[in-house]
Amino acid sequence: MLLDEKQQEIELSFVERIYQTFINVRKRLISLSVLFKENEKVYCNDSDSDEEMFMGPFPSDKEEIEKCLIDVDRILEHLASTKDLQEQFPSFPLCKDGWTIRRFVDVANFDPTKRRKTVLNWIKLQTLTACEDAQKNKYSLRRNSYSTRQTIEKELLFDHEHVNGINFLSISSVPTATITTTDEITLSPTNNVYDLNLLDLPNEILIHIFSYLTPCELVPQCALICRKFYTIILDHLWTKLELRNLISVYDVACLLQSVPLLKSLTFVEWNELSPITWCIWLHSMNAQIRSIRFQSTTLNPICVALLVELLPNFDTIIFDYQNKAFDKFDLLLTLLADKSSLKRITASYQLGISNFGILQLVTKLPILIELNLLYVEAINDETVRILCEKHKDHLQILKIDGAQLTDKSLIYIGKCKLLKALMIEFCSGMNGEYFSVIGDLSQLEELCLSKLTLIPLQAYESIFFDHFFPHMSVLKLGECQCINDACVELIVKACPNLKDLTLAWSPDITDIGFETICIGCKKLTKLSVLGCFRIVGTCLNDVPDKYLKYIKHLNFEQCNHTSDELLTDLYKRKNDLFIINYYGTCVETDEN
Amino acid sequence: MATNVEETYLYSSPTTFKVSSKDGEIFDIDDSFINQSKTIKNMLNVLDIADNHMPIPLQNIKGTMLNAAIVFCKYHKNDLLSIPDDEDEDDFERDAYEPRRSDDISEWDKEFIKQFTVEEGTLFDIIMAANYLDIKALLAVGCKTIANMVRGKNSDQVRQMFNISYDPPGEGLNTPRNSVTSKESGDNQLLTTQEKESRCKTPSPELMYD
């Protein structure tokens, strides 16, 4: 069948655009290759001496770039030949994902306003799966007992990745006066009793109403009620989408065209995709998209180069922990360093990151607001110095690994006066000399430090004595062995608005300190005293009547002086509480 | 009386004022109302009313609704301090994947909201009044109530409950069980209460094609 002229135009321009994109990607990869070659020497010189701070890229990175270039060349060749042969072979597959010229045309012609039901079904599928996963996570959290070590990790490290609780189909009471059974409500179109109808409420109130409903209620039910609701839900509420490997890559391309206000997009479990697929997806996306996240989705340099090439305005990128990660992450960071709109980067747990990659990112990006590189041990004092000197007027969130850091880096961090969140894991190389610097970061909302075994009491006092953190809501100090009751009092005084407090493994905290927390921190929702084994917890008897009115989560793991009965009684009084007992298991009553 | 000590108000005493509703009823309001209604608080700050005998006209609100809002604020005068600060209260770009809780309506509020119904449209009236007066707690109770009504029902049931007209069967997304004649769209026009009253007809959604 011959394609008509109009379609031919579309397909021509589409193929042309994709071809052009890959030409640009090739240029990016070549300049990447040049950069890595230039810096090769730095690595050679340094490899023998441990003293030199700066290291070049890993040698295997270069080979990877060469491989990518070969792949890109092959794609270009393929596209070029297709351009010539399209009239004879409109169904010839261009890559292993099966893209053909016909598919291009279908995607380019997709009109979401005519296919609302289809779009809704796609979103429904994605949403219901997301909700189900969240539900499963919640369930397993309640069931499983985890070991101490894991708990610390969970408490301190994985927190920022928690699936935010989706209040899955919670069955709430319904005022009986207003609704009898639905069958009893008789309808007549001429019924003039109504002064005001639900549809008369202004959009902002409808959005307010919908904000109480979960996505799995909104999509299958509410969006179907009428077009107004559909529009409100998809346009106003649908700013975030989790895209799973549930629909075909062609449908994804269509779906991406149908959510015009999407701001944040998460790719879940999309592996081994052809670069052509990524290219078409990125072409289909709304240019206003701000945040991209990859969960269990392996990327290679070509995909990241496409991302940098095609999405004009994104400012946030998040790579989640994954089992089968791409192990030359320096390449990806270096490519991302060319994206000047990028302001927030999360690449914790990724493999193959060296100082070279981090420095590319830090020195090339004009504004860096958030940098999360937990579990990336490469970062050292010098990198922190360059980071903080360049971005001190912007940096708000910094989460890094402290394995190679000394107290000196705190002096540099102290220059970032806008810091809202600071997390340094494994401060094993620090001695607390410059902890007082943290005390001057008065904007802090979150402070997490772990492995503080060597830090003396005075260091904590220098943070909290005579300093005031009005916004501090999350404070986590792991293995802070030297903290005592008096210091707890300083903390409570300095941070009156705490919502989440963890003090782990401090044997000097007794019931006096615990009571200080209960009385002083009125807004606490989460409290963990993991391993503070001298706490008996008598004042828990007054929870929630007198103290800790808003508490939701209590952790008494490895607190062998806290009796099981005390915790069980507390659970009976307030059974929406999530309490972890000495054994690391969740307190439940016998009936459950 | 426990008032919020941290906040200071620009207006000075007296602490009671008069307000008049759309239908001419006059009510006395005190601190409890002024503190919770941002609209009134702003009005008082801007207007600098010295003479408290002159009622402030609230042309958008019916007497019954105003009265109810005053009762609500009287009951809730003391919880100002204990409401945990919810910073993202106004953030409509909030994440759809993290819905707010709607199952935490207190017993008193449940009883209170029962007097307003969908059938008479009064539930929407009180929500509109709360929105106009900017009483966050009352608006939240109203919206939560509606959210709870919608929850767990299929779209057909929701349409019945709120008397939302259907599109003719088979024509689109919301294929109904029994159809009601669609009238011209009320979709993009937002009608005020008054306009609505003069028209008194059920707005119909536009067709959805597929």
UniProtKB/TrEMBL annotation, chain A:
<protein>
    <recommendedName>
        <fullName>F-box domain-containing protein</fullName>
    </recommendedName>
</protein>
<dbReference type="InterPro" id="IPR032675">
    <property type="entry name" value="LRR_dom_sf"/>
</dbReference>
<keyword id="KW-0833">Ubl conjugation pathway</keyword>
<dbReference type="Pfam" id="PF12937">
    <property type="entry name" value="F-box-like"/>
</dbReference>
<dbReference type="InterPro" id="IPR036047">
    <property type="entry name" value="F-box-like_dom_sf"/>
</dbReference>
<dbReference type="InterPro" id="IPR001810">
    <property type="entry name" value="F-box_dom"/>
</dbReference>
<dbReference type="GO" id="GO:0019005">
    <property type="term" value="C:SCF ubiquitin ligase complex"/>
</dbReference>
<dbReference type="GO" id="GO:0031146">
    <property type="term" value="P:SCF-dependent proteasomal ubiquitin-dependent protein catabolic process"/>
</dbReference>
<dbReference type="InterPro" id="IPR006553">
    <property type="entry name" value="Leu-rich_rpt_Cys-con_subtyp"/>
</dbReference>
<feature type="domain" description="F-box">
    <location>
        <begin position="195"/>
        <end position="241"/>
    </location>
</feature>
From TrEMBL, chain B:
<dbReference type="Pfam" id="PF03931">
    <property type="entry name" value="Skp1_POZ"/>
</dbReference>
<dbReference type="Pfam" id="PF01466">
    <property type="entry name" value="Skp1"/>
</dbReference>
<feature type="compositionally biased region" description="Polar residues">
    <location>
        <begin position="175"/>
        <end position="193"/>
    </location>
</feature>
<protein>
    <recommendedName>
        <fullName>S-phase kinase-associated protein 1</fullName>
    </recommendedName>
</protein>
<comment type="similarity">
    <text>Belongs to the SKP1 family.</text>
</comment>
<feature type="domain" description="SKP1 component POZ">
    <location>
        <begin position="17"/>
        <end position="78"/>
    </location>
</feature>
<feature type="domain" description="SKP1 component dimerisation">
    <location>
        <begin position="136"/>
        <end position="167"/>
    </location>
</feature>
<dbReference type="InterPro" id="IPR016072">
    <property type="entry name" value="Skp1_comp_dimer"/>
</dbReference>
<keyword id="KW-0833">Ubl conjugation pathway</keyword>
<dbReference type="InterPro" id="IPR016897">
    <property type="entry name" value="SKP1"/>
</dbReference>
<dbReference type="GO" id="GO:0006511">
    <property type="term" value="P:ubiquitin-dependent protein catabolic process"/>
</dbReference>
<dbReference type="InterPro" id="IPR011333">
    <property type="entry name" value="SKP1/BTB/POZ_sf"/>
</dbReference>
<dbReference type="InterPro" id="IPR016073">
    <property type="entry name" value="Skp1_comp_POZ"/>
</dbReference>
<feature type="region of interest" description="Disordered">
    <location>
        <begin position="166"/>
        <end position="210"/>
    </location>
</feature>
<dbReference type="InterPro" id="IPR001232">
    <property type="entry name" value="SKP1-like"/>
</dbReference>
<dbReference type="InterPro" id="IPR036296">
    <property type="entry name" value="SKP1-like_dim_sf"/>
</dbReference>
